[in-house]
Amino acid sequence: MFWRLSFALILLTSSAVAQPKFSSKYEKRTAQSLLLSSPVSNPSSNIISYFGFNNARRELWLGTLGGLNVLEDTALQFRTVTDFARFNRQGVQSLTVLGDTIWAATSTRRDGQPTGDGLMFSLDGGRTWSERAQPLDRPTDTLEQYGINTLKALPIIVPQQNVIYSMSFRSASATQPNGSIWIASWSGGIRRSTNNGESWQRMVLPPDNVQRIAPTDTLRFAFEPRRGTTGELTFLGFSVLAASDGSVWCGTVDGVCRTTQADSLYPAWTKFNRRFSGLSGNWIIAIREQHTATDTLIWLASWRADDNAERFGASYTSDNGRTWRIALDNERLYDFAFNGDTVYAVGSNGLFISPNKGRTWINKRNLIDKDNPRQFIGTSAEFFGCFVQPLSTGGKRLWVGTADGTAISDDGGNTWQILRANKSVATAETRTYAYPNPFAPSLDGQVRIRYKLSRDATVTIRILDFSMNLVATPVNAQPRRSDREEEDVWNGKTNFGGKVANGVYFYSIEAKGQEPIYGKIMVLN
Question: What is the pTM of this model?
């Protein structure tokens, strides 16, 4: 994912200029010629964290750090939405797709803090788009109605620490003909809109240490997210799921809350967390739904929050929360995907696969391209997102988004194809480039050296320091082809295994019978 948070650091700056709760802006952009870029063979970013699928159109939507991409069915031809510049400047922070309805949100940084930057949505499968401002309260919104109760509330009037980390669209009903979009926006909590984002309702959930609330209860608490030592962890929203049975699940830093009254003005809620239900941890990072031939399961990526008794892991239920099980104990997970009984989970330690609904697991860390073993996902990379795409051929394609590129598999994770947002070497003046550059060995693991030969040859790559002394030889007399762009890696170490110092390094690509190709790498740990 594109975020790093510590909920203990939440700050709400009340001196910022307030924004209205109701947005009058409804700008619809219909410039078809500007909507999508020409198709290319790679995604617009190496980091893909969010996925959504339009089954009728057979289109897969990808939320990437470089914008919103879409591709059709089996073809690996990526097109980028170009109508909204901030999609491409700041990437996509969350994404939900249900039929032709698509919602996406972006974020930025302001005053050194993660900052919500608004939403875009399409009701026609991405052919036209409308824009919405970040949902905010008025300074006068100091009271919140919930059934018979009027609760004191802290208005969220600035976009800082108010990022939409998750969203889910609920289909239309008799009382909500436009459907409803649910968002989890950290200090903004859980919110719902039934009019395509023209106005938003803050959802009142059970406060800390309370398991259930209903609109007919007499309640005495302040509707205020945790900031420092005041406020409630429950009102920090992080994930949301509109489930297929009509219920809605909302993930917070004090557990997950479920309602079966999602159409109601004031839904009743039940909370599940470590204390009440035995979840591994209270901070719910992701909520996903698994359908099998015999049952439906809800999976949570549940992290440790503020209690040392909590643990990282997966918490899951097959009976809507009456009982819970824990899997992948102490694993920091980000996402899940499913294919029948098979569960895919991704996190800091790679990809985990269970063929039997979470009873047993195997771990896959080093994903290698089946056609080119020098294309691989580095072992130090975090895995952020996963998705199982149904194909028109009847097969399924597994997508895994990591910090080091994207891996896809058409056989359930046995073999892989690695995708990266590489620019062609043909656009580089020296016929080569290295990335990431600057290169931080402790963070990046390895730097990739990309180049194009004029003909097949035996290649040696040498790393030289600023005085042109030999530092390392990552490739020594190995055959390379000229019918494709080649890529080799250097791990930031000398030939003797020592870590190199920060500074500028040069590399030479020496192909037998050809002029050497030179490039430069900045090492910056």
Answer: 0.86
